[in-house]
Amino acid sequence: MALAAAGRVLLQAGSRLGRREVVDGARRFANKRVEVEADEAAGIAVMKLKNPPVNSLSLEFLTEFLISLEKLENNKNFRGVILTSERPGVFSAGLDLMEMYGRNPAHYAEYWRAVQELWLRLYLSNMILVCAINGTSPAGGCLMALTCDHRIMADNPKYTIGLNESQLGIVAPFWFKDNFVNTVGYRTAEHALQLGLLFPPAEALKLGIVDEVVPEDQVHSKAQSVMAQWMAIPDHSRQLTKNMMRKAMADNLIKQREADIQNFVSFISRDSIQKSLHTYLEKLKQKKG
Ligand SMILES: CCCCCCCCCCC/C=C/C(=O)SCCNC(=O)CCNC(=O)[C@H](O)C(C)(C)COP(=O)(O)OP(=O)(O)OC[C@H]1O[C@@H](n2cnc3c(N)ncnc32)[C@H](O)[C@@H]1OP(=O)(O)O
């Protein structure tokens, strides 16, 4: 119920944005920040993140992404989604720092609700989610990948993935942490989260953050072949199994969703945290100069 209500809010927000949907022969639809190549006959869609320059998860991006995902969820012909970046090199730079810096509490609350919604929708999706990680994927970007059923990363040592929040002076919330612990195990998570480590593909594979590392030019073909394997499993048994594995963790967030929002708002509003974000943003700028 809570999920459905939040979804309606996002849909309303989406229509307020007034984006015109572009339909190309019923096989492709796009809003400004997400491109969907939908092969209805095959039952597979490729969702490409395209929020330049670095696919940060801004409020507008989250709204548009959730609307596109809902369209696919509502069409029973779609059984699988491949998530990838339209800009190879960066899968996603994670949560948009500008949504968490210098804004007011109401904005922080609205943003955090949308971040929660993204995680819940992806984590509990009945569809098969395969992540084709064709670039760097820190923090919220890594979280998106962690919600998927299978992760394939491009073999480029320049790319990294992990939950680096502590390096920014912020903290990965409990549900980021739980998703990570369930993927890599407690000790690895404890170590990586405290240090805010980002891992290149080979290490990410060793730790189980990703399931496969393949040459960069094969990420998409690999994602398609993995999807074919997963599609061969009957939906009802796969979905019941997925739900059995994931429901408890998602319910843990659902039951304390409002408290989690309040925690986020009071944490992110602190002067010391705003100062840390300021310093990090300055560092990002200086890196350029
Ligand atoms: C008690 C417990 C309570 C807990 C309560 C909760 C607490 C808060 C939890 C918050 C969880 C946060 C999760 C996150 O996802 S935080 C974001 C983490 N992301 C990063 O650290 C990535 C930062 N970016 C980079 O490292 C690089 O940009 C990247 C490697 C991704 C790409 O490099 P590239 O050289 O290609 O591009 P630039 O660095 O030049 O960047 C281009 C412009 O984009 C801006 N940028 C980059 N990342 C972000 C971002 N995440 N959000 C907003 N903007 C971003 C960058 O500043 C450049 O902008 P300008 O062109 O204007 O300079």
From TrEMBL:
Enzyme class: isomerase
Top-level taxon of origin: Eukaryota
One Pfam family per UniProt: ECH_1
One GO MF term attached to the UniProt entry: delta(3)-delta(2)-enoyl-CoA isomerase activity
Catalytically driven reaction(s): (3Z)-decenoyl-CoA = (2E)-decenoyl-CoA; (2E)-tetradecenoyl-CoA = (3Z)-tetradecenoyl-CoA; (3Z)-octenoyl-CoA = (2E)-octenoyl-CoA; a (3E)-enoyl-CoA = a 4-saturated (2E)-enoyl-CoA
GO cellular component: mitochondrial matrix
E.C. code: 5.3.3.8
Subcellular location as annotated: Mitochondrion matrix
InterPro entries linked to this entry: ClpP/crotonase-like_dom_sf (IPR029045), Enoyl-CoA_hydra/iso (IPR001753)
Pathway: Lipid metabolism; fatty acid beta-oxidation
Keywords for the protein's UniProt record, in alphabetical order: Acetylation, Fatty acid metabolism, Isomerase, Lipid metabolism, Mitochondrion, Transit peptide
Main location: mitochondrion
GO biological process, one term: fatty acid beta-oxidation
Sequence similarity: Belongs to the enoyl-CoA hydratase/isomerase family.
Described function: Key enzyme of fatty acid beta-oxidation. Able to isomerize both 3-cis (3Z) and 3-trans (3E) double bonds into the 2-trans (2E) form in a range of enoyl-CoA species, with a preference for (3Z)-enoyl-CoAs over (3E)-enoyl-CoAs. The catalytic efficiency of this enzyme is not affected by the fatty acyl chain length.
Assembly and oligomerization: Homotrimer.
Protein name (record): Enoyl-CoA delta isomerase 1, mitochondrial
